[in-house]
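Workshop exercise sheet. Pairs work together: one partner reads the sequence aloud, the other fills in the structure field after running the prediction. Swap roles for the next sheet.
Pair: D.N. / O.F.
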Amino acid sequence: MHYSPNDILGIDPNDILDGKNRKRKSRYKKEQPQVTEAEYQGKKVTLNKPFRTPDGPKKFSVYVKNKKGNISKVNFGDPSMEIRRDDPEARKSFRARHKCDQKKDKTTPGYWSCYQWRKGAKVVDSISFNRKDNLVENLIDELLSL
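Structure field:
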């Protein structure tokens, strides 16, 4: 049997190799446009970015686009429990208990719960941003009414 150098090195002739990093770069791989904003019930929302829910049924929510192309709101997290993702043992236990390595569907609460329990995760507290925005708007309205 005859092997070429490309077969031995595991190089696909359709790939381009970057000389510095020796990483494969396929010339056929196309970037898919990432939709980050959409409209949900008449208001503009950011997709795939979890936020805290002030009075919601759960601790966090996230807007996602489902397979049909519709925007839906996914609620997840117990409001009375604390996320201890900085504790390696607690993170490992949670991820094993919830089988986080199997959660792939972004339209499910389980996926987003596991997403919050990844290492180094941060959640933007949208409540405080909304309060700041409302305070600024109220101050502007008061100044304009003078």
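Discussion prompt: The chain has four helices and seven strands. What would you look at next?
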